[in-house]
Amino acid sequence: MLKDxxxxxxxxxxxxxxxxxxxxxxxxxxxxxxxxxxxxxVATIDDSxxxxxxxxxxxxxxxxxxxxxxxxxxxxxxxxxxxxxIAKMDFVV
Length: 93
Hints:
Layout: H1 2-11, H2 21-25, H3 28-37, E1 42-45, E2 49-55, E3 61-67, H4 70-86
Antiparallel strand pairs: 1-2, 2-3
């Protein structure tokens, strides 16, 4: 169960949070940037690369792409900061 994994990670000192997609996208700027980025399944590498994973409706990977576009990197970094601000840590019952 995901909750058990999250609790195990928290016990060893990992900062574990959760956030519903709808909550994140309720932020107008995040929603706009999401459309520009094309996915929320992203990672940044060395503060210079953005890896975007594109999924189908069943969340199967259909493609992935990388970019060094500074504007996309700025938008992804903003989305990450906003997500961290509103993500919850209180999943423990």
